[in-house]
Write a structure and sequence with these properties.
By secondary structure, the protein is α/β, with parallel strands linked by helices. Helix content is 38%, strand content 13%. The chain has 12 helices and 10 strands. α6 crosses α9. The protein is globular.
Length: 369
């Protein structure tokens, strides 16, 4: 399977060299239910526009019910925001942090309205997704556009660049992987393969984004930093409602291959997710763990970066970048730092029809809207 488009050095028009004065930071996340009564309304919002049979939606709801209808994502996001607030304060950045979700409370339009009412004029947004794709980037930019459209005196909102190859992100993932390997007896560590995972995408969507290349680069950088045993990238969380071929190999297929090679232990690192949510818990901690056990594999799942100090410090550094004239833009590996303003046709959905308007992109060299 090709890795997808290779990220190139961004043209100067996509790099923000100005120093901006921000009034606030906006953390934008996916959101998740926090009780049994939230599950169906949450799923209605997530699955809006998809032709999913009612029985399929009910089956998904049952999986949430097994965990009391609570996704861990909101608790993780709250912990991250608390850590970011402390990091900003320690660094002398007096910026309040707001939080808005795509799919559950606090919903992004409500948060943007509250920011406006609080007098915020310009904010910098951090989307809790590290890699470029429609689902992880452009869709959030469309959400941001919709949140400010038609809102009188709406704040101007910029968006931080992707940090998939930033030293802080690579160190945070590496640290989590080291912690997982430390759970194995020392004599077993060198023989335990490492499997990175990320959310699968429809191939039609992946063709329009640097998602696979960025993932492979981040995996390579982490593996090199910890002198890892042989590693592979697998995909999880396929959503067949799209009716398209999805990125492979699946985590199950990779586990089966490792078992056939007589592996006894395996470390699985969900590098494509910055915090735990139901897809990490269900697809890895429940389904993949069960499948590994049936194959005779001892599977250890590395933690997501969550509120790791290096990851939180990276976000603060990216904010500093946009407040500094002609800043240093740190990045590891071969691709360099990603763009600040997204190109017009960046990370398209792969579906027919014109793309929806989005924030933090470029049109004739001007940030939109």
């Amino acid at each position: 399977m090709p890795e997808g488009p290779r990220p190139a050095a961004p043209p100067l028009g996509l790099i923000d060299t100005a120093a901006h004065a921000y009034d606030a930071v906006l953390v934008v996340s996916f959101g998740g239910p926090e009780g049994p009564g939230d599950v169906m309304p949450f799923l209605d919002k997530v699955l809006e526009g998809l032709k999913l049979p009612p029985q399929a939606k009910a089956k998904i709801a049952e999986r949430y019910a097994a965990f009391g209808g609570v996704s861990p994502i909101n608790a993780h996001t709250r912990a991250f925001i608390g850590a970011l607030e402390r990091e900003l304060e320690t660094s002398g950045l007096d910026l309040p942090v707001y939080w808005g979700n795509r799919n559950w409370h606090p919903l992004l339009p409500d948060t943007v309205k509250r920011m406006r009412d609080d007098g915020v004029r310009r904010a910098i947004a951090y989307v809790t997704s590290t890699f470029g794709s429609y689902s992880g980037c452009r869709r959030y930019r469309e959400d941001l556009y919709a949140a400010v459209a038609g809102l009188d005196a709406a704040p101007v909102i910029d968006k931080l660049r992707h940090g998939y190859n930033h030293p802080g992100f690579i160190e945070a993932v590496s640290s989590r992987v080291r912690e997982a390997y430390a759970e194995l007896p020392e004599h077993a560590r060198a023989a335990a393969p490492l499997v990175f995972t990320a959310h699968s995408l429809p191939e039609s969507m992946a063709r329009h984004a640097p998602y696979q290349s960025q993932l492979h680069e981040a995996c390579r950088l982490v593996a090199a930093s910890i002198a890892a045993p042989p590693w592979e990238l697998a995909y999880q969380s396929h959503n067949t409602a799209y009716g398209d071929a999805w990125l492979s190999p699946s985590i199950d297929a990779v586990l089966e291959k490792l078992a056939a090679r007589s592996a006894r232990d395996v470390v699985v690192a969900p590098i494509g997710f910055v915090c735990d949510h139901m897809e990490v818990v269900l697809d890895l901690d429940v389904d993949a763990k069960k499948h590994a056990s049936e194959l005779g594999l001892n599977m250890l799942r590395a933690a997501t970066v969550g509120s790791h100090p290096s990851y939180v410090a990276m976000v603060r550094e990216l904010i500093d970048e946009r407040m500094t004239e002609d800043p240093e833009r740190r990045a590891l590996g071969d691709f360099g730092a990603s763009h600040d303003f997204c190109p017009v046709n960046c990370c398209l959905s792969g579906r027919p029809g014109a793309p929806r308007p989005s924030l933090a992109g470029v049109a004739d060299g001007v940030s939109t809207p």
